[in-house]
Specification:
Helices cover 53% and strands 10% of the residues. The protein is built from 7 helices and 4 strands. α1 (5-28) crosses α3 and α1 (5-28) packs across α4.
Length: 161
């Protein structure tokens, strides 16, 4: 399964904001100043017009806040420790499903779009795709934005633990 550039670039934007917040907190304990999207685009080597589209999705999901004006820009809407990667990916990509015929049903979990159709037996591969989806979602739920900006040694210790 491949996530689109929406997820890739959006996670990079969020990691950039989290790193800036972490640096500001370590430096003086004060809240971080908003960061312009142009400076994020330059620092990350990403197209500004595309990022404008992505941050609107992140804002609607209450993951980032924006401030207008000369000193405006974007900040995280809540601490990086409270933002899971599943929150970010869902805001950008929608529900996570490994293949098109599997969809999320709030009442029954994952369903195959062919289930219940006359003449179709239960899908023999549903178990596989359900487990793949559960593994992806579990990994994204277990990792927070703060995990991406911790020093490399801390991340390595967490992985081996």
């Amino acid at each position: 399964m491949m996530f689109s550039t929406k997820a890739e670039y959006g996670v990079r934007v969020m990691a950039h904001l989290a790193a800036a917040a972490s640096e500001a907190n370590a430096r003086d304990g004060a809240g971080e100043a908003p960061i312009s999207l142009g400076s994020i685009a330059d620092a990350e080597g990403l197209p500004l017009a595309y990022l404008e589209h992505l941050v609107q999705r992140l804002r609607r999901a209450d993951l980032v806040e924006s401030r207008r004006g000369a000193h405006g820009g974007y900040t995280l809407a809540r601490p990086a420790e409270d933002i899971s990667m599943a929150d970010v990916v869902r805001a950008l990509e929608g529900e996570i499903a490994p293949i098109e015929c599997i969809t999320a049903d709030p009442e029954r979990g994952l369903v195959c779009v062919r289930e219940g159709e006359l003449g179709h037996d239960p899908c023999p591969t549903k178990l596989l795709w359900t487990r793949v989806q559960a593994s992806i979602v579990r990994t994204l739920n277990d990792m927070t934005l703060a995990d991406l900006v911790r020093p490399a040694r801390t991340r390595t210790e967490k992985v081996t633990a």
